[in-house]
UniProtKB/TrEMBL annotation, chains A, B:
PROSITE patterns: HTH_TETR_2. The lineage of its organism: Bacteria, Pseudomonadati, Pseudomonadota, Alphaproteobacteria, Sphingomonadales. This is TetR family transcriptional regulator. Gene3D superfamilies: Tetracycline Repressor, domain 2. Signal peptide: none annotated. It comes from Novosphingobium kunmingense.
DNA sequence: AAAAGTTTAGGGTGCGCACCCTAGACGGGC
DNA sequence: GCCCGTCTAGGGTGCGCACCCTAAACTTTT
């Protein structure tokens, strides 16, 4: 891996743990096992580094937003795939999801595009849920799918913070990701066809075991 | 109002807007219309000031946690009262609710008590919802009330951030508070007796108009 | 082998910020 | 009038941090 990429990855991880402001360039250089001078060779300012992370964030979101329910596929599997991708994103860029509006100042791409991303995410989830309704796996009024999508997004997104504040560990392997996904299921599991509910639960449990690209 | 109290109130408001770290003591003094020296007369360190705000936070939560559904009262009114108190708290101490775990380092009371507060909040909401079930106003399985309470807490709590990120104004008078409360209603309004749903909606709308102690 | 790119080590700067210090002014209570 | 508490003004310090600089060493590419 190129040094520059290693720096961006380490920065993202440290920002997730401590927040952007609390991570010193000295600590970051040490984490990468490089000299601070080398950090400055690759990035002119700390803000440039933030923008590199933000660009990755944008790319990740753009790629995820391409996910669509397959018309000839399996709605449950497609939905699980989407939720898995979302959770991965929330974890990879946790500091940005913790207080995204505040980072808009540091990285213009975020400030400009956050609203559109959020709306597109709701629409994406809604499309997947609508597929479940079409397949007879979910009994939910069409008019209520948007609200369900929004609520699901909020629950998934803030789930890890929720467990963190309860004093529970939230890192990989702790079960927090699985619990977060299960929590979001409580929004609509009563309206799922029982076998579909079981399949979805199983699919999400498998996804929860996949470690993220640290 | 005593200067010390004015300082604490101004600090809380500025921390809500900018976060603790981004508020300089110089800016705070200016906001209070006092000299910086006077700020240091009242508080030895910035952290002492943080702790004063945190103490208020703790008191507010402890007082709110005393709210109980009145056995001889009206479940809907009691529930609205609780939700109103919660929303007020989320707004008064918005910065602490934005990233509460991170503030545990600055103010020990938060770090030590956050888990217990959160659990108590769930139980409180659950008790109020159970009352609605008992009164026949809400059709919800008793076993599902805890999940509903948790989800409601998360939605209410992060609702303002949600609108903020959509680029919508969230201050007093913008309708964001009302929309947040309505959003949480989408979790269970389909299970509310129709007249009860209308009454609750009306009660929450009235609460949303009450400005918070700036 | 030479050129280009990357990295190190070690010194440094400038700035922002929390906080200190001091003498004196002012206001309220006795 | 005295005492005490509160506040001001204006000067300051020390520290943490992002970032700079430079020569040399090392690695990769041509």
């Amino acid at each position: 891996m190129r040094t520059r990429d290693r720096i961006v990855a380490a920065a993202r991880a440290l920002f997730n743990e401590q927040g952007f402001g609390a991570v010193t360039t000295a600590a970051l250089a040490a984490q990468c096992g490089i000299s601070e001078g080398n950090l400055w060779y690759h990035f002119k300012t700390k803000r440039d580094l933030m923008e590199a992370v933000a660009d990755q964030f944008a790319e990740t979101i753009d790629a995820r937003l391409l996910l669509r329910p397959d018309p000839d596929g399996d709605g449950i599997a497609d939905y699980a795939r989407l939720i898995g991708a979302l959770m991965e994103e929330f974890r990879l860029f946790r500091f940005l999801y913790r207080d995204q509006a505040a980072y808009g100042e540091h990285a213009p791409v975020i400030g400009q595009r956050a609203p559109e991303w959020i709306e597109a995410t709701f629409a994406q989830i809604e499309a997947h849920l609508a597929r479940l309704v079409d397949e007879g796996q979910l009994a939910w009024p069409r008019a209520g799918l948007r609200d369900l999508s929004i609520n699901a997004t909020i629950i998934l997104r803030y789930g890890l913070e929720h467990y963190r504040e309860l004093g529970e560990p939230t890192g990989t392997g702790t079960g927090a990701v699985r619990r977060t996904m299960e929590r979001h299921l409580t929004l609509f599991q009563h309206a799922l066809e029982p076998a579909a509910a079981r399949r979805l639960r199983t699919a999400l449990a498998e996804i929860a075991e996949i470690p993220i690209a640290a």
